[in-house]
Amino acid sequence: MLIMKKIISLLVFAVLFSGCSVTGKAVAEIKNETIQGVSVISLIDPLCPECGNNMIHYQRLRSFGVIIKEFKNINYRAEQGMDLIRRYNITKIPTVIIENMSVSMNAYGFYRLYGNYYGNTYVFRKPESIAGFAYRDLTTNKVQKTIEVVGSFFREFKKTTEQMCYENGKPVVYFFSENPWETEVMNRAMLPFSGKIVFYSNTNYGIFSDYPGSSETKTIFGCTYYRDGLPEEFNEEREIETLSVMACVITGGAPSEVCSKYSGLLMSV
After folding, report:
1. What pLDDT is stored for residue 150 in this prediction?
2. Co-location of 169 and 217 in the same domain
3. 163 in the same domain as 138
């Protein structure tokens, strides 16, 4: 496991041409080595300016409340980078290798949809799952770009600064609506998540006023994501997909038999 020896100041997320690794982000609240967090190796391709960067993983891990003790950029063409490519048989760049993923079971569960675990070390293998993301396929040496996600989908939901809320260890979903169509769709969408979430429908109205908006319909996932009002489209299939994606985000990709169907959307929420 990578262990941070001292606290360093925040640095700009840098591209490495020399092959030396640089700590790109350090979490200021880390005061000593006993704090549990993850260490991230970010394999990048400096010769592919159009390729995406790995900050999406930094943001995703932080959304799960994970402390990031170290975030290193490594040029995959350098000796250390090539050693990692061979060790883990990596075929797509950019990617990340994350140490100590068991500190967050939600992050652990979410990321298993996109790569492999080697003990407590994780290797991300599906950059094609990120919408609008360019990456290099090392088997063909060609740069590929995924399509952008269009339409309303989960982008109707706003992300707040609230911490994820749990009850008995499960993320909480609050739903408020007198609309019969949306109520039926919401109940159907949440049914497969029974045992993975705590679902309140038209109760706990004290929560309702905590989220801005003038609509009588509010949908709140994990206290972190919310939508004020009804969906832009009254399309049952799309609405179930949207609600299921949001539930998968807060459960860390559980249950996998449901969330695996939406893996192409989850990384983009």
Report:
1. 42
2. yes
3. no
pLDDT tens column, 205-234: 889 989 988 889 999 999 989 999 888 778
Which tokens hold the place of 13? 């997320």
Tokens representing 141 are 């040496």
Q: Is 166 helix (H, G, I), strand (E, B) or coil?
A: strand
Phi-psi region of 100 (alpha: psi -120 to 50; beta: other; left: phi over 0): left
> Measured in whole angstroms, how far is the alpha carbon of residue 28 from the centre of its chain?
21
At position 20, the amino acid (one-letter code) is C
Rounded Cα gap, residues 68 and 93, in angstroms: 21
pTM for this model (two decimals): 0.59
Structure tokens at 107: 């992050």
Distance from C-alpha of 96 to C-alpha of 259, rounded to nearest angstrom: 22
Residues 114, 164 share a domain: no
For residue 217, report the phi and psi dihedrals to the nearest 5 degrees: -110, 125
For residue 115, name the pLDDT band (cuts at 50, 70, 90): very high
Residue 193 is part of a domain; what is its CATH number? 3.40.30
